[in-house]
Amino acid sequence: MIVEEIMNTTVFSLQPSDTIKDAVQLLKKERIRHLPITNSAGEVIGLVTERDIKNALPSSLLKIHDEDIFYQPLENIMTKNIIVGHPLDFVEEIALIFYEQRIGCLPIVSAGKLVGIVTGTDLLYNYIELTGANKPSSLIEIRVPDVVGILFEVTKVFHKHRVSVLSVLVYPDKELDNMKILSIRVKIMNPLSIIEDLRKEGFDVLWPNMPGMNL
Amino acid sequence: MAKYAGHESLTKNAVFVYSDNQLGYKFSDTHPFNQKRLTLTVDLLNELGALNKDDIVEPRIATDEEILLGHDAKYVDIIKKAGHGELSNEQGEPYGIGTEDTPIFPFMHEASAHIVGGTLTACDYVMQDKVKHAANLGGGLHHGFKGRASGFCIYNDSTVAIKYMQQKYNARVLYIDTDAHHGDGVQWSFYDDPNVCTISIHETGRYLFPGTGNVTERGTGEGHGTSFNLPIDAFTEDESFLDIYETAFREIVAHFKPDVILTQNGADAHYFDPLTHLYCSMKIYKEIPRIAHELAHEFCDGRWIAVGGGGYDIWRVVPRAWSLIWTEMTDQKAPDGPLPATWLEKWQLESPVTLIPTWMDPNNMYNDVPRKAEITEKNYQILEKALYMIRSSQS
């Protein structure tokens, strides 16, 4: 999946000469936390986040009313040399950038111009879409040995029951090194006959587990 | 044993909508959805002496026009064709039929229209003030979508019935679904409708079909705040289930102020149910209708329609659970102690499992649940999240 499929294309941005007051109002009105700063050519030259603004403003507990601060240009508080992404970047790669660089948003730049923005919330939503149920379905979890062709063996059982698979996630088994966990979302309400067949084929079906339980 | 108390008066309190033609909704001999549970329930009520011939009314068959209140014309056409042998499994699949869950069977349109008609019959009796309450236990097919069958359900009788009551009687309807699966079909039908409130209590969709029914699903647009979801954890037991059910039901009904309550009474939250992982006993099936009955009188002048739903242990669970709806509805004392011996003798011969000989379950049905306290605590948090909006609007 590439960034242009998930990025927000309506981007709220300001210019370096705009004031802190402008930024405060825009963040509040649009309920956002990040503002790319662009020059008159539409190039990204900085970023102002909610935290930059909080740092700039006096504590709300102080009784000082220094209105001047609100009229300072954003230029004075923005972060320069920011990390940006491209519409053709892979979502998996930018997720890693978010994690490693500990950032909260990534302005997306193409042909020198700001064309979109991705935030941590967008990545979370993407995760929800990957792992959640957007069509009526049941989830089956299977522990399988980490060997070539195992997914084929498992999906043969689904094929036999003519059940459509909505999503498959594969992740490492935390307990056993040479095993993987398959988490498969299938479009079926009664998975019992499939589970029975999976067990007959020797697969370790973790869930649904029958009364006996292992939470 | 409680005796039927209806013949002293001409005006009845309740009707039981049923006829053998509801048994035509049948996928195959091995399919878990098996309407033999209706036969077993009616027979149990008969043996108990709790169901009189004149309590029973014939379900009518729903007209196409009525079914179209909840479904697309194209879909109804497909179902008709499928039931008349004019459709392959492959052609049916985009419409959710011809699958392992919802196979094609002869006359599936007619059988499904009888189920819908039964629920409409029940609605007419109640909304025309002929009776206070009515049950159509053949109904409750809550997974049916506008243009697609899902999870054993073809036409969604509750969706059609609610639309019908809105149109014909201008009613404000509260739908509460205690099936162990999320009542998705009904929820999505009224997701943006502020005049229909849906409540579903179900095992969390993390693993279980249909996967939806998160507490954050609250309705959309004008209907925001009229969908309630209470996804409870696998291994939830009676006490926590009933606490969630009664608290949510009472607060929501007081907030929404419906004209009529429609309850969906799937009986698959029981420990014995093969498709789900909740650990409830017959105790919840005694309490669910009791509280519905009480609230219907408190808020809706008694107007209460009960439909069936899931329930896949058709021998040990469903007949007892559904009999308790009828005894509650007719103000008969909830039966206790042993089941009628004649019933046990007759059906034990056919049942693949040993029948439970008493109305309530034995105490040692299962071993203690190790993380009971945490499960109860988590369910309670879900309850608070689900009710957050109406609680904060009151304070």
From TrEMBL, chain A:
CDD domains: ACT_AcuB, CBS_pair_AcuB_like. Residues 139-213 form the ACT domain. Residues 7-67, 78-137 form the CBS domain. Transmembrane segments: none annotated. Keywords: CBS domain. InterPro entries: ACT-like_dom_sf (IPR045865), ACT_dom (IPR002912), CBS_dom (IPR000644), CBS_dom_sf (IPR046342), Diverse_CBS-Domain (IPR051257). The keyword Phosphoprotein does not apply. This is Acetoin utilization AcuB family protein.
UniProtKB/TrEMBL annotation, chain B:
Gene3D superfamilies: Histone deacetylase domain. Pathway: Ketone degradation; acetoin degradation. It comes from the Bacteria. InterPro entries: AcuC, HDACs, His_deacetylse_dom, His_deacetylse_dom_sf, Ureohydrolase_dom_sf. The keyword Protein biosynthesis does not apply. Keywords: Acetoin catabolism. CDD domains: HDAC_AcuC_like. Belongs to the histone deacetylase family. This is Acetoin utilization protein AcuC. It comes from Viridibacillus soli.
